[in-house]
Automatic annotation (TrEMBL):
GO cellular component entries: Golgi membrane
Domain Nucleotide-diphospho-sugar transferase: 113-328
Annotated localization: Golgi apparatus membrane
Family: Belongs to the glycosyltransferase 77 family.
Protein name as catalogued: Glycosyltransferase
Pfam family, one: Nucleotid_trans
Organism of provenance: Raphanus sativus (Radish)
The protein's Enzyme Commission number: 2.4.2.-
Name of the top EC class for this enzyme: transferase
Lineage: Eukaryota, Viridiplantae, Streptophyta, Embryophyta, Tracheophyta
Membrane-spanning residues: 29-49
InterPro entries, per database record: Nucl-diP-sugar_transferase, Nucleotide-diphossugar_trans, UDP-D-xylose:L-fucose_XylT
Amino acid sequence: MAQQLFSSSHLCHSSVSNRLNISLLSRNVLLLLLVSLRLLLGVFLPWTGSPLFIFPNRSSSSYSSLPSNWRDYSLPQAAKFVAKDGTVIVCTVSYPFLPFLNNWLISVSRQKHQDKVIVIAEDYATLYLINQKWPGHAVLIPPALDSQTAYKFGSQGFFKFTSRRPHLLQLLELGYNVMYNDVDMVWLQDPFQYLEGSHDAYFTDDMTRIKPLNHSHDLPPPDRNGVTYICSCMIFLRPKNGAKLLMKKWIEELQAGSKAYEGNDQPAFNWALNKTYHQVDLFLLSQAAFPTGGLYFNNETWAEETKGKHVIIHNNYIIGYDHKMKRFHDFGLWLVDDHAFESPLGKLE
C-alpha cells in the first residue's frame, strides 16, 4: 500500500512537473516567436513601402481627432496636430512633385524635424496619398488643381500654387512660428540653430554675388532699378505684428500685380519687404549657410571654400523638372533612390 502511495505520489509529482515544464516551454516558445516576429518585421517592413517606425511620437489617442474624410481637414486642425514647441514647417506640393517632396522629407527627417511638417496638397490625389501613408500631415486649401498636370517650376501653373504661400498668415494668426520651404531643397544641417535672436522674419538672398562670411543681416539695398532679390522659397516667421504685416503686404502685392507676377511670386515678396522694412524686424540669413543654387551649384571654388557651412541647399537657377532631378543626382543630393525609408512616406511607387 505504501508502495502504491509512493508510486501514486511520484506519478502526481511527475505530472505536475511535466505540466510546469510544458508551461515554461510554451512561454519560452512564445517569447521566441515574439522576438522572431519583431526581427522579421524589421527586415520585411522596408520592402512593403513603409518605414519601420511610422509614428514613433504619436499616441493612439492623438489620431482620434483626425477626420474620417480628409476633405474636411483644415489648416488649423493640421497645425494643432503637427506643431512642436509652437512651430510648424510648411511646404506646398502637387502630385507630380511627390518625388521632390520625399527627397526633401528625408533630409528633414535626418535633422529630426519631420513631425512638424504640414504639406499643403494642391490636388486631392496628393492629399489622400500623403494622409494614407502619414495621417494628419497633409491638408488641401481649395480650389484644388489638376493632379495630372506636371507643373514646371516657373510656369503659370506653378505660380498658381506657390502664390498661396501667404496662407502662412493664417498660421501666424493662430500663434505659430512658421518655416516655409520649397520642396526642391535639401537640408544638410538643422536650420533652426541659425535663427539667431527673435526677429520677425528671416529670409535668404537670391543673388549669386559672393558676400563676406560676416556680411550684414539687414535687408540688402535695392539695385539701380530699385529692386532687391530676396528668395521667397525659404522663410521663417514668428507670430509677431511685423511678420503679419509683411504677409498682408505680400498678399496685397500679389492681388494688385497678379498679371505682372504671373509665373513668379518672388517680385511681390520683394516689393512687400521694401515697403515694410522700416516696420518689420528683418534678418538676412548667412549666404554660406543658405546659398542660392546659382552660387552653390555653379561656383565650385566657393562651394569648396565654404564646405561644412552649408545648411539648406536650394536647387534653383535651373528650369525643368528633369534638369533639377539630374542636378541633385550629379551632386549626390538625390536621396530617394537609396534612402526612401528615412522618409515618413516611405517608398513611393
